[in-house]
TrEMBL record:
Biological processes annotated in GO: carbohydrate derivative biosynthetic process
Glycosyl transferase family domain mapped to chain residues: 180-326
Top-level taxonomic group: Bacteria
Species whose genome carries this gene: Catenuloplanes niger
SUPFAM superfamilies given in the database record: UDP-Glycosyltransferase/glycogen phosphorylase
Residue span(s) of domain Glycosyltransferase subfamily 4-like N-terminal: 18-127
PANTHER family: SULFOQUINOVOSYL TRANSFERASE SQD2 (PTHR45947)
This protein's UniProt keywords: Glycosyltransferase, Transferase
Record has Transferase as a keyword: yes
Molecular-function GO terms, alphabetical: glycosyltransferase activity
Name this protein carries in UniProt: Glycosyltransferase involved in cell wall biosynthesis
InterPro entries membership: Glyco_trans_1 (IPR001296), Glyco_trans_4-like_N (IPR028098), Glycosyltransferase_grp1 (IPR050194)
Length: 370
């Protein structure tokens, strides 16, 4: 089987720090190849992930273009998708596995009955794009999958009719997680992820001051990955406005700190040393990469019980969940009763790359059999 894996034009695979979808693709591809599946990776030229073949339209990731006006950015995805279509037209592709929001789905449908089967993984909030998702018809050849069961329940009926199931996200950190040595825990909580209203960093910061726990915020503000870069940021960027208006007033460098984007061992040490990973969600988180990473590093999760969190976290064993924002801060003082080894064991059982790859390989086989 030869699968074209379309990761999109925004970031390299693997990314240098932030990049949820690209990290998932980087985790999935080696495991698929270990199963004997050949992978043609459509990405950007600076990607370093080994594959059987690479396709790209851009030498470098185009993430910064997402913050530009539409009339400047609108050509990025079509240029990338054109390169994908040229490779598909050259032949030898048994199935396309696409991760490009909205445009990937329409590309698969536009290929028509003569194209290879297409699987489109939904990584985002399915209340977006109602005019597309609410009327979509990809026939028998296009299928979608969720990254959680909850995510698909929010899909319009037309899109849900194309669903073939869900596959939870995974992390390489889950490999042998149950045999990892116990980390030294410190008193802080950590919030991982891009700083925006849906992730709720402003709520986390207010709770830290109100309930007396230290908090570290780790993630970019828009395309700005460090305090130095943010100092020269475009003030009209919506994430930058959210930072300055809602988050920064609570960041005092003592009780609440922002460390920008962290990656690799620095990120792992930060999460492993936290007493809890805090998820003060204001949206229905579809997949939860940071959730499974936290468990694999032995750090329990404290969060709002919405989106995928109730599927990933066992309340009272691997984390504490609530539907009440006011109670969230109180749970930070109860999390010390949870056992680090339980978190790591759950990650090793459910969220390894091999488990995720087996789930996708099963979906591929179902589609090709159809």
């Amino acid at each position: 089987m030869r699968v074209l894996m379309n990761a999109g034009p925004w970031l390299p695979v693997p990314p240098n720090g932030y990049g949820g979808i690209e990290n998932i693709v980087a985790t999935l591809v080696p495991e698929l190849r270990a199963l004997g599946i050949e992978v043609v990776l459509a990405t950007v030229g600076e990607s370093t992930l080994p594959a059987d073949e690479h396709v790209h339209a851009f030498g470098t990731g185009q993430f910064a273009m997402l913050q530009r006006p539409y009339n400047q950015a609108c050509g990025v995805v079509p240029a990338h998708q054109a390169a994908v279509l040229r490779r598909v037209a050259a032949g030898g592709i048994d199935l396309i596995h696409d991760h490009v929001e909205a445009a990937g789905l329409t590309m698969l449908a536009a290929l028509g009955s003569g194209g290879p089967p297409g699987l489109h993984t939904l990584h985002w909030d399915l209340r977006k794009h109602p005019d597309l998702y609410g009327t979509f018809d990809g026939g028998d050849r296009v299928r979608v999958n969720g990254v959680s069961a909850d995510q698909l329940t929010h899909a319009p009926e037309a899109l849900r009719a194309h669903a073939i199931g869900h596959v939870h996200l995974a992390t390489p950190l889950a490999i042998d997680a149950d045999r990892r040595e116990k980390a030294e825990k410190h008193g802080y909580a950590v919030v991982l992820g891009r700083i925006n209203p849906g992730k709720g960093q402003d709520l986390a910061a207010r709770l830290a001051h109100r309930h007396g726990f230290d908090l570290v915020l780790a993630g970019p503000v828009g395309p700005y990955h460090s305090p130095e870069a943010l100092a020269a940021a475009d003030p009209q960027n919506p994430d930058v406005r959210f930072w300055h208006e809602q988050v920064a007033p609570h960041v005092d460098g003592v009780r609440v700190r922002w460390v920008g984007t962290v990656a690799g061992q620095e990120r792992d040490d930060l999460v492993a040393g936290a007493r809890a990973a805090l998820f003060p969600l204001r949206w229905n988180e579809p997949g939860g990469t940071a959730v499974v990473e936290s468990l694999a590093l032995g750090t329990p999760v404290v969060g709002i019980a919405r989106g995928c969190l109730p599927e990933l976290i066992e309340h009272g064993r691997t984390g504490l969940l609530t539907t009440d924002e006011d109670e969230l801060g109180e749970l930070m003082h109860a999390v010390g009763g949870l056992v680090e080894a339980e978190c790591r064991a759950e990650a090793a059982r459910r969220f390894t790359p091999a488990v995720m790859a087996a789930g996708y390989a099963a979906l591929y086989e179902r589609m090709l059999t159809r």
